[in-house]
Task: structure prediction
Amino acid sequence: MTRKRTGLSRRAFTAGAASAAFAGPSILRAQVDQTGLRRNISSFRTHSWQDSFDAL
Result:
């Protein structure tokens, strides 16, 4: 009498459960925050600094 092997072994199940336990909190923290937080995008604009300095 031989047992029919399933596709998922005990070792694979344990490894999957452990990786899900470690990845779970980071996946939950990666959700998009919709609190209306403003981002600083003005630092990426090109500014004309020639008016501020006499000699460049």
